[in-house]
Amino acid sequence: MTTGSRFDRQLPAMLEDLYVGPSPDYRDDVLAAATVKRQRPAWTFPGRWLPMADIADRPAFAPHAPWRTIGVALVLIALLVAAAVIYVGTRPVKVPPPFGPARNGGIVFAAGGDIFIGDPVSGSSRPLVTGPEMDGNPLFSRDGTRVAFMRQVGAPATPAFDLIVANADGSGTKVLAKKLDTDDPYEWSPDGSYLVFTDTEFRLYRIDATGTTTPQLLDEHAYVQPGEFRPPDGGQILYEPQAVGATGSQGGHALWVMNSDGSGKRPMVEVPRERARDGDFGSVRYSPDGTMIAFLQAPAAGTDELRIFIMNADGTGLRPLTTETGLWTETDLAWSPDSKQIAFDRWHQNPASGSWEIQPIGVASIAGGKVRSIGPTPVSDGAWFDFSPDGTALVSIPGTILSESYPATRVQPTTIDIATGKTRTLDWQVGSTLTWQRLAL
Amino acid sequence: MDQRELVGRAKRGDHDAFAALVDPALARLDAAARLILRDPELARDAVQEALIRAWRDLPGLREPDRFEAWLRRLTVNACLDLARRRRRRPIEVELTPIDSPAPSDLSGALADRELVDSALRRLDPGHRAVVAMYYLLGMPLPEVASSLGIPIGTAKSRLHYALAAMRLAVTTEPDPAPAPVPGGQVA
């Protein structure tokens, strides 16, 4: 036996002696630090895609009536009420379509258990829903008239959440569903008549937006993310089946589609077990014009790559979005309102060190897949971002704060101009994703 | 209770089940982290980061039988992330005290350990990660490659390079101060 081969045989024992000891004395501390965090539902990937939306709203900032004198006011009120009744009765309120370009409204966010709305033009912000309750995870309806959010109820160790909806000005709060076991993901239907919610057991519910009917179970083993209602009417919903045996995906990963009433379930894309990787379908979104679907998938020949693929809405024409050489991980995709571009987080693998290095947010053209970087390089966990309703900007926050429902850390959001890459920091302390109100053009 | 059941309970927020899943692996994860980072405090940070990610993302784990492999991967990646962030900070390892009886050839074994440790110190974290995953965590090379996001050929070459460095450190005589000879060879 040579000295070298003897060494090779002894090396494992040597390393054991050198490094392996009893259970470390920090065991209790690290376990406590880990389990104090809130768990996320499946289909997440190193860190980050969240319930969010490209939705928007804009509260009315309605002025209070100028009561000067009681007598004059009574007359004015009578006249105004009469005029308002006539106006409302004869003209529909102008709201934006659920998808496609719209006018930018306010941006709603949560911080410290309250819901706020900010004006990205003036930079001002004000509370929308306040109180002792812990409210978070706000989401505008696609017509911008209502805001849904989650209210934590119960003990912090065993949190439950009520799904609540309010008018865009914060008035008229109403509980739609009680004691849900997680606060995401959920999503408004395009017409705002209901929301879908996936619990931690992957039961998919349809929740009536009026709060008058019991939530309807659409599927016992499905997961629906924001962006999976097919524009323009949401008649079909993409979903990721979770019970592999029952749905036929046979242990791999799959993307299916169902009608919005839960009928007509059928596969769109299936990845066999041997090719299935973490991150497959970690983000799936219809284009706002409803003609295409973009999703994440590990390329067949890749190592740890994750790339954005696009295909026609009927499942044909599957192809990678980008054509960059090298190894890339692309995540957190967001369509531009005009369906012509996709923004995404991306990491490039350094061929020398093998490490994944975060890059600035990429924006790729659907026609040709050419990528350009915009804005500063995000933190290592990437950024959360979404397009403004008019498609001219992204609003972005560091992705690291999004692992908790009510993070102690707050961040200042930035807007990034799509054309110039110019950034502007908004003077708000934000502890959640943001939801941008859509207004009629 | 088997691992699948523990994973199922932990996915539903059961802290005790999560602890039961983690406990059997913790000492070895700490060892791997100390080997890669060569700093006990950084190792603790890496293990904590891995556990936070494991707890947070556990509901997304679709193969309960792969929990341990997943946790190993999270730990190594947390180590490499930390190493990248602390690239300019000099770090040193604190060796684990040995409680077990020493082998008969005590001086030789201790000397070899020190030489191996010294050789590992000179490797970069990416090479040490391959050594830790292969020897301490018992991961097969394809899994090592997959976890690090590198081709298997790269994983093999890193392991080969690391082994050669350690072997050279131990088998080169005399020690500890070899006299240089003409041509740069070590006698």
Describe the protein in words:
The complex is a heterodimer of chains A (441) and B (187). In chain A, a hairpin with a 5-residue loop joins strand 26 (414-417) and strand 27. Chain A has 441 residues and is mostly beta strands. Chain A is built from four helices and 28 strands. Chain A has helices at residues 3-19, 27-35, 70-90, 244-247, and strands spanning 103-111, 114-118, 125-129, 134-140, 146-153, 160-167, 174-180, 186-188, 194-198, 204-208, 216-219, 222-223, 236-241, 253-259, 266-271, 284-286, 292-297, 307-312, 319-320, 328-335, 341-349, 356-365, 371-374, 383-387, 393-398, 414-417, 423-425, 435-439. Chain B is elongated, with a radius of gyration of 19 Å. Chain B has helices at residues 3-11, 15-37, 40-57, 67-85, 106-122, 125-136, 141-148, 152-171. Chain B starts with a helix and ends in a 16-residue tail after the last helix. Chain B folds into two domains: 1-87, Rna Polymerase Sigma Factor, Chain: A (Orthogonal Bundle), CATH 1.10.1740; 105-175, Winged helix-like DNA-binding domain superfamily/Winged helix DNA-binding domain (Arc Repressor Mutant, subunit A). The interface between A and B is large, with 54 and 61 residues.
